[in-house]
Structures
1.
Amino acid sequence: MGTLLKELRDCCMHESSRQRPFCMEPEAAPTLTRRVVELVREKLLLRNIEADRIAGDKGVMHVFGYPAKRIVVEGAKRSTEEEIAVSARMDVNYARIEVQDEPLYGWPVKLRQKLCPCNYCFKFGACVHLVYALRATDRMDGAGRRILVSRRIGRKRSEDGITTLGGRPRAIGPALSVD
């Protein structure tokens, strides 16, 4: 019974009250990365190419962030619905500070320093603008980690200098043959 109560408590806790491991530099949360994907799909995060050309700095990308649609949780009959409404209000406040005081040309995201001047990035160390800019300029997976791609041709050089295809030699039979 105690285990079930712990699981229920973990499910009902808001994500901002959960403990996170200590990191030496800020990392984008998985929820933030999912939010970036959703905002890009809804075309609420866009790159301002004209402002990038005018600025001329390759290390700065200007990103427009438009406010997302609000989801209203109606009814407060039980305490769980009240908690849902409170967490929904917290998410609305976080979404509000992402676009609060946004410049006309978009947020100037500094790619080398991994900084964005928005209030959300100042508070949490990463924001949707920063994750979007890093994903647009660098290959990153869904978790925000850099994808390493091997572009090597699959040929090996033998001792004689003759190039051969990599892998298992064709003259060798099955692995467990007794020939």
2.
Amino acid sequence: MPETQIQINESLMDKLVAEKTAANELQKRKHEDWNDNYELYRNKVKTNRLTQRQAVNIPLMKETIKTILSKIDDAPNAEWKEMGGNEDKELIYQEIWDAALRENKLELIDILDKKNVLLYGLSAKKLNIGDTGVSINVLDVYDIVYDPLMSASDSETAKFIIHQNIFRSIREILADDRYAKNGKDELMSWVNSEPGLTQSEENKKNWELKMERLKDMGVDHQDFSLFVGGDRLVNLTEHYTNIWNIKKKEWERKVVVYADDHVELLNETLMDLTGVDFWPFIVWSEDPEINDIYPDSVADLVRTPNKVLNVWFSQMIENRTLKNFQMHWFLPGQNYTPQTYTPGPGVMLPAPPGDDINKVIKPVEISGLDDTLTAISALTQIVERGTGATAIEKGQPEKGVQTLGEVQILVGKAMERSIGIAKFYKMAWHETCWKWDKLMHANAPKILKLYKTSRTGKIYSKKIYASDWKSTAGYEPMIRSSSEQEQESLKTIQKFMFLLAQFPNNEALRKIAQKRMLESVDLSSEELKQVESSEEKQQQQPQQQEQEQSPQGFAEIQNKMGELAALSR
């Protein structure tokens, strides 16, 4: 029996390593392009003796990425609807989501997610189960690899998804109750062996490279300084895969965690670990391809022109440097030995006696590159047309005279491309919310503490139990970006203004329009009360004036009638 179990484990590890190798081979073809995109974005330039001798970079990559990112940087808002119509549960669930939004810094995660897509073509978020619910993290594109046969439009079609390069110390692994004891014992034997020691040093180098890349991308983490004390590092892999269940005679989704591609630490079904049967990953891109799960990115379009611009700019600087050297040709002779000099006012320079100086010494002619800036401008415009990040979108005026209509057309075209990207990340966020909801119901925290701010600014806390928000009917997320909501509210106000012009004396319509306008502005409840109170006072003043004037008018009418009666007598 033990021999059979060992053979099964060995065959499983062989299967896992084979899947990991195939997935990494598919991704490696993109690494060179990804590294170039990242270095150009970070203003890192590789010099060489032939084409680019100066370490200069025109920040075309950074300004293009940041311009597009500024158009899509609004994090989508999720509005939860309880399918059974229970408004109390719907309200509580919305507060739970809003609290998770703040605690997990989902706005920052959303920005990093979009930046990954713009730089590398795709991005992945991972859902993790914790004591207070489900958290969302964006992954380094190098750390997640996929089944080569996975559909680019649906990550659930993947037979396996691998989260690799999870670096942990030996102490962390030994203290984790999720891992099997025999796996921990085998790990201790492995790390103390000669191959294990070599692998540990390699793991530490890979960790340092990964942390440097994450810091450069703007991500800070509390574990960055964890391993500076010489702790032994282990490279863990979370392998999500399909394995045939002989007893049930069906494919079963499993999670296998192993160290350094040798030691198995955990082997459980996905259902037992998470309570759901879908992959806890959300993968998306802004330019999906049918035949390739690694599509082209915006940065791929900018990379080659940016390199060309750097070469041209470097050559122009090199030429100016050579001109500034003021090198000269000279005819060597017995009567003249040229010498260097220090420039300064009143400096006298020796000349060859008896000879024409123009025949003995001559400046080295260095042809100028006067058309370089023109060529750079032309190439930049080509990139702008391809990416939609025009000069106007970057905050720079276009050269030449342009009409207002032409400017509006350029801005409109750029906005259309931004809206095209927004469609894809809204779909990704809908999938994120859907999976988050299912994981929350399957792993509901017993107690959650929520906080609410009153009108006076005082903060109140309340304990929320699972029965307060769990729904048998389920929830449906409605995804909207804040910019879309603002645009819709503006359109609504414009419609109300049109209706008020058609029905100027309709008091009910006027009150409804005023209420909608105030709702579109971020006013506190106290401020809303002040506005409504002031409006009521203004409406009461004309009514009082009419009432004061009406008795006087009635008295005048009576006097006139009395005068008429006297005349008739």
